[in-house]
Amino acid sequence: ILNVEQSPQSLHVQEGDSTNFTCSFPSSNFYALHWYRWETAKSPEALFVMTLNGDEKKKGRISATLNTKEGYSYLYIKGSQPEDSATYLCAFKRLSGANNLFFGTGTRLTVIP
Amino acid sequence: EAGVAQSPRYKIIEKRQSVAFWCNPISGHATLYWYQQILGQGPKLLIQFQNNGVVDDSQLPKDRFSAERLKGVDSTLKIQPAKLEDSAVYLCASSFSGRGEGGYTFGSGTRLTVV
Question: Is the pLDDT of residue B20 over 90?
Answer without folding.
Answer: yes
